Amino acid sequence: MEGGNSPSLQLQQLPLATAAVSVQPHTDSFSYKENLIGALLAIFGHLVSSIALNLQKYSHIRLAGSKDLRAYFRTKTWWSGFLLLVLGELGVFSSYAFAPLSLIVPLSAVSVVASAIIGIIFIKEKWKPKEFLRRYVLSFVGCGLAVVGTYLLVTFGPNSHEKMTAENITRHLVSWPFLLYMLVEIIVFCLLLYFYKERNANYIVIILLLVALLGSMTVVTVKAVAGMVLVSIQGTLQLDSPIFYIMLVCMIATAIYQATFLAQASQLYDSAQISSIGYILSTTAAISAGATFYLDFMGEDVLHICMFALGCLIAFLGVFLITRNRKKPVPFEPYISMDAMPGMQNMHDKGIAVQPDLKASFSYGALENNDSMPEIYSPATLPIVQEQHGSRGGSAPPYRVLEHSKKE
C-alpha cells in the first residue's frame, strides 16, 4: 500500500514544487522583458525631457535676441517643449511600473548626457577650434563613461518583480526594515533642517541631502502609484484602496518640498554643481530606499550586485566630468576696479591715500564710506575766519586759510 500511494503523493506535490520555483526572480524570462521595457521607457522619457527643456531654452534665447515683445508662453516653440516635457515625464512615470526602482533611478544620467550634447549642437554654443579639446574633451569622456555605466546598470540591474497590489504595498510599508530606515531618515532630515534653518548652514551638501531624502520617498511612492495603476489597467482594480491615495498624497507633497529646496539651492550655487552632486546623492538615497522598501536586491548574487555598483560609480564619474566642464557664468562688474590695474597706487602704498580699496560695494571714490578711516587719511578742511575791517579802510581779505598740523 505504501508503494501504491507514493506515486499519488508525488503527483500531488508536483504542482506545489512548480509554483515554488516560478516565484524565483531569475527563472521567469518575462521579468527580463519587463526590465527592458522599463529601462527603454526611462531612457526615452529622459531623452524627450532633455529635448523639451532645451527647446524651451531656445525659445527664451530667441525672444531675448529679437524685437519680439511677446511673452514666452505665447510662442509655439515653448508650448512644443512643454508638451514634449509632459510626454517625457509620462514615460519616466510609466517605467516605474515595469522595472525595479533601483534600476530606473540611475538612468537619469541619460538626461545629463543628452543635455550636454544638445547644448552644443542644438543651442549652438560658440567655441573655437583651439579651445575644443580643452573645453569639450572632458564632456565627451564623461558621456562615454555615462553610456558604459548605463549599459552595466541595465545588464546587471536587480530582477525582482512583484505586482503592486494594495496588500503587497501595505505589507512593505509596515515591515521592520523600512520602519527602521524611515526612523533613521527622519532623524537625519530633522538634524539637517535644523542646521539649515537655525544655524544658517547654507552648504550645498546639506541642501542637496535634504532634496535627496525627500526624493527617495518620492520615487518610492511613484513606483507604488504607477504599479497600482498598471495592475488596475490589467483588470484588478486597486484605485479604491486607501493606500493608493496615501501614496498619491505623499508623492505630491514630497515632490513639492523637493522642488522648493532645489529652487533655494539654485539661488546660491551653480547649476553644474547642483546637477552633479544632486545626482550622486539622490541616486544613492533612492537605491537605498528601493532596496529597503521593495527588497530589490533580494535573491541577487554577489556578482550582479558588484557589477551594478560598478555601473553606478562609472555613471557618477561620467556625470561629474560632464558638469565639471560647463561654462561658469561671469558675474557682472559695474566698473573697473582701479586697484586691480597694474601700476596703480592704493591706500596701502606707503600710507598715502590715493585710491580706495574695493570693499565688495558698487561705489568708489567720493561715494565710498570713509567713516571708519583714521583721521590722518581724512581730507583737510578750510575753516573760514571772518575779520572786521579796520578803520583805515584797508582792503583786507575777507577770509584767511588756517594751516593745521598733523597734531591738531
From TrEMBL:
Q: Per the record, which residues fall in region Disordered?
A: 387-408
Its annotated compartments are:
Membrane
Q: Which UniProt keywords apply?
A: Membrane, Transmembrane, Transmembrane helix
Q: What GO cellular component term, any one, is given?
A: membrane
Question: What's the superkingdom here?
Answer: Eukaryota
Q: How does it sit in the membrane?
A: Multi-pass membrane protein
Q: Could you give a GO molecular-function term held by this entry?
A: magnesium ion transmembrane transporter activity
Q: Which InterPro entries match?
A: Mg_trans_NIPA
Please indicate if the UniProt record lists Membrane as a keyword: yes
Instruction: List the transmembrane segments.
Output: 36-56, 77-97, 103-123, 135-154, 174-196, 203-231, 243-265, 277-296, 302-322
Q: Which PANTHER family match?
A: NIPA-LIKE PROTEIN 3, PTHR12570
Assigned protein family: Belongs to the NIPA family.
Kindly provide the name given to this protein in its UniProt entry. NPAL3 protein
State the species of origin: Prunella himalayana
